[in-house]
Design a protein that fits this description.
The protein has 18 helices and no strands. The protein is mainly alpha-helical. It has a single domain, classed as Growth Hormone, Chain: A (Up-down Bundle), CATH 1.20.1250.
Length: 407
């Protein structure tokens, strides 16, 4: 894999750390600002909604900026947002800092996915995207647990200052390692938005919202669930986050590997397993050992969906991928926002800290149904061309011949 993927992974590491670290620090942040746990959960919801808004807006505004320069600028915005969170004297400013940092998230991963895919041969695109997202999943193994440990023992503000420093390191890494990128070809906005008339693109994004949202119904309220229900000490949350992150790391790599071979079967397996595990967690959460087994499995099955879903969007929007790629990253975070909000609702309604997992199971199951529908529509669309004789008779030629019918 090209060394430039390391630079993208550095940026992903910083973004992943700030996105997930609030799951381990929610009680500390809530205590300092004097707000409830569901209110503190708005830090996750606000961040996710910022990604949803920032992804398409910054992708459009930066459409004529060379992609390397755009990636560096986005990480600069990320640094400003995390510094504001670290210095916030009141909860509203902390939330504002989260939103500022989140604006860079979607466009960074969307543009980064395009750059990563363009660095390798076509048959290795999902693997390259997975390598970039390895920075995100590695952050859950290293960055988030260490950030939680620092936040619990030194102060959560120090954690966000360190994250801002990671953003500075990412800017330097991109400047040094990512090769010069050509200025994107001028594409009319109508050309970029045309992708959203493709049912397969819309289905993929809906799967992203529902499937990945299911993961966040669990992770957003992981700390109070494990301390109040499973009986873990607050210091043990760090190690549970390490397990969760290891699961995400493994799932991401497996998803990238097999999405290049059998994309839809990979999605069926990941979404089905995720739905089952989320449904089981309200039961296993009452036992420390069972909970410690279930949590990393949820991370693995949840993140196994990321490379195939991102690749599917890129495959369906090859002529104008920038906006669609960024919007799909926003879709991941729209799922996060919906999940955190719904989880807070069921907790506030008195159903307890395990109840959000039932919501997550329903979301993942709905995503699986959409994946089955997508596969059925694709078979129906490509069936008329399957019997054509293509010059040369190669499977690759037949695929190229059939491709326009699927876009």
């Amino acid at each position: 894999m090209p060394l430039a993927l390391l630079a993208l992974a550095i940026g992903a590491f910083g973004i992943g750390t700030t996105e997930f670290v609030t799951a381990g620090l929610l009680p500390e942040i809530a205590d300092e600002f004097g707000v409830s746990i569901p209110t503190a959960g708005l830090l996750t919801t606000g961040y996710a909604l910022g990604v949803v808004v920032g992804a398409p807006v910054l992708a459009i505004l930066g459409g004529r900026i060379p992609r390397k320069a755009m990636l560096m600028g986005l990480m600069g915005l990320f640094v400003v947002g995390n510094a504001l969170s670290a210095a916030a004297p009141v909860f509203s400013l902390m939330l504002a800092g989260r939103i500022v940092a989140s604006l860079a998230h979607g466009a960074f991963f969307g543009i980064g996915s395009i750059v990563a895919a363009g660095l390798v041969a076509p048959q290795k695109k999902a693997g390259a995207i997975a390598m970039m997202f390895t920075g995100l999943t590695t952050s859950t193994v290293v960055g988030v647990p260490m950030g939680t440990l620092v936040g619990q023992n030194v102060g959560w503000r120090v954690t966000f200052l360190i994250i801002a420093g990671l953003g500075v390191l990412a800017v330097l890494g991109i400047a040094a390692l990512v090769p010069p990128q050509p200025r994107p070809e001028r594409t009319r906005l109508s050309g970029e938005t045309a992708a959203f008339r493709n049912p397969q693109v819309l289905l993929a994004m809906a799967m992203t919202v529902l499937g990945f949202g299911g993961v966040f119904t669990m992770s957003t309220y992981l700390a109070p669930m494990m301390t109040d229900v499973a009986g873990y000490a607050p210091s043990s949350v760090t190690w549970l986050l390490v397990l969760f992150g290891l699961g995400m790391l493994v799932g991401n790599l497996i998803g990238g590997r097999y999405a290049d071979r059998a994309l839809m079967p990979m999605l069926f397996t990941a979404l089905g397993g995720l739905a089952v595990l989320l449904a089981l967690l309200p039961l296993t959460a009452h036992d420390k050992t069972a909970a410690a087994v279930t949590i990393p499995l949820i991370g693995a099955f949840g993140f196994a969906t990321v490379p195939p879903l991102q690749k599917r969007v890129l495959d369906q929007t090859a002529d104008a991928p920038t906006l669609a790629s960024a919007v799909n990253i926003g879709a991941f975070n729209l799922g996060n926002a919906i999940a955190a909000w719904l989880g807070g609702l069921v907790i506030s309604a008195g159903f307890g800290y395990t109840a959000p997992n039932w919501v997550g199971a329903a979301m993942a199951a709905s995503a699986l149904l959409l994946a089955l529908l997508s596969a059925a529509l694709e078979r129906r669309t490509t069936a008329p061309s399957a019997g054509r004789v293509v010059a040369g008779g190669s499977p690759a030629a037949a695929e190229r011949e059939a491709a326009p019918a699927t876009r």
